[in-house]
Design brief:
By secondary structure, the chain is mostly helical. The protein is built from seven helices and no strands.
Length: 118
Amino acid sequence: MNMTKRSLWYGYLNEPSTENTCSMFVTIFLSLAILLNILEVVLGSVAEFAIHMDSWVMLANYTFVTIFALEYGARLWVAADSPHEQLLSEWKKRWLYVRSPMGLIDLFSFLPIVLWVI
């Protein structure tokens, strides 16, 4: 079966497998980004660190916002290939992702900073 790029990326993002190098890379990369973002938030809230690392904290913040926004966009794109709701249109599948708990968590992981920058 010939898989499209979108269906391949659906697997990478939603069905991680130790047998697929790209899938493992995506999973490890996003997991590290989440952990490092938590560390950045914690250290950024400690006054002693925040004073000395002000520009680094902002750079890290923008980096994580970019990563999480790209992840959200990719998940929104691949949601159209969701095998769970085959009778729905691509747009309805995407809307289901947007309204899902995971979709909302993904959205709120970067939206506040985007709104603050705007």
